[in-house]
Design brief:
The chain is about 100% helix and about 0% strand. The chain is mostly helical. The radius of gyration is 43 Å and the shape is rod-shaped.
């Protein structure tokens, strides 16, 4: 009987150790699962933030391109106006010379 009790005590001790190991493994798995969830949430937040920043950058690029187009258009209009003024002045000067020659 003593050997049987000793064997039972040994088996019981082994089972208790397995249970402790399984509980520890389960805590570890739970901690990893929780970290994974946290990392997923953090990833989504970062992804949304980067998407928003990208949209803002694209918007600024489009605005800058529009501004450059407008500035180029205004510059061309100014050059055209100056060229027209130069042509008018030249015609006026030519007309004055023609009058003086007569």
């Amino acid at each position: 009987m003593d050997a049987a009790q000793s064997r039972l005590a040994h088996d019981r001790q082994q089972l208790e150790q397995r249970i402790k190991n399984q509980e520890e493994q389960q805590r570890h798995v739970d901690a990893l699962r929780e970290k994974l969830e946290h990392d997923k949430e953090e990833f989504e937040e970062t992804k949304q933030k980067q998407q928003h920043e990208s949209e803002q950058l694209n918007k600024r690029v489009v605005e800058a391109q529009e501004q450059m187009k407008n500035e180029a258009r205004l510059s061309l209009e100014q050059e055209r106006a100056e060229a027209l003024q130069a042509v008018k002045k030249q015609k006026h000067d030519s007309a004055e010379r023609a009058v003086k020659l007569e």
